[in-house]
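look at this record:
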Amino acid sequence: MTPRPGAERSTDSYLPAHGNGGYRVVHYDLELDYRIVSNRLGGRAVVTAVADEPLSRFTLDMGRLRVSDVRVGGRPARFSQRPGKLRITPAQPVAGHFVAEIRYAGKPVPIPGRWGDIGWDELTDGVLVASQPIGAPSWFPCDDRPAAKAAFRVTITAPTPYTVVVTGDLVGRRRGAGTTTWMYERAEPTSPYLMSVQIGRYELIDLVPGGAVRQRAAVPPRLRRRFAHDFGRHGEIMTALEGFFGPYPFREYVVVVADDDLDDPVEAQGMAVFGKNHVDGRRTHERLVAHELAHQWFGNSLTVADWRHIWLNEGFATYAEWLWSGVRGGLSAATQAAQWHARLAIRPSAIRVADPGVDNMFDPMVYKRGALTLHALRVEIGDELFFRMVRGWVADHQHATVTGEQFRAYAQSYTPKPLGALFTAWLDRPALPPLPRR
């Protein structure tokens, strides 16, 4: 077979500049050295992949960090960089399993996008990595698509006064002369955008001591008292969401509170990051605590195959807010649905929730209409069947990628009632349909 120069690129429909074709990554091994004062990152990425067919060249998504050396199968490879891409030409075509080693360094900066700058970002004293949806290439070479899940091992060396938290299980920590090396492994298939690094002067504490799911937190010491109150019901939230959605899909969950203000919390696989402004000692933002935890099921374990299906992530996470409100004695999901329906009814919208368009991926309409769709479905088929269906959906697609079309078909498989008209009205048409009542 004649090697191809590179198969047709496999990209996301909303973000076609990201993603690469001809291969699939199965494992990333990242060794990083970060100097906080100078904001300098040195990296070595070992990317293990499988070529769909023999390739004479291939590409990886890569930000502004400069590559100094590339080896494929242990042999030097030719390479070039252009904005957003690393082009690699191995000494001989790759076929089947192959390993690429990339060495790179520089001052990491976020990737500019229509939603702002996204990726590796400096805090006042530390680092925050928020990669959704295009920021992963700001700190490592990757196949940056939500559907391109792989396993990870991340080793980071940083100054000893700082705590390093990475999405994954801490498997080792080694202290040197003024630095500490932290080693994390993420065995579950993970999208590059869901990998995160948090570096700060944090105190590591048990969020829920002795719980069935290990729940930890990394918190600035001065915020510990307020944090203890604001996140004091986290164990109850976990229990409630497990009751609605099924077992928590990872081994642990880590909450990080950055010592800077953040516009919104940040989700990562097995992690959520809040700003200091989200910790006020009054539980003002507890709904966001439930929202980010729900993303571990919807977004992280079940990851959308393409960004156009984002309502599956945000609709379920928003509905989790409403469900938790009812559990804790606040407004019920039905009451919240009615209130949000009334608010949306006076707002004109041209958004189709099932395919909102790249500019509207994070529009509140996608979040609220998505949650209202789920509530309408719950009313239509009844509580018992709805939650049984949701738990089945989660269990049957654990650590996989999903689409809106799959969800519609899955829901329909649980009931003889035709659901096509319901989904069409709520997801495919901009006009807001009436809210069904029991």
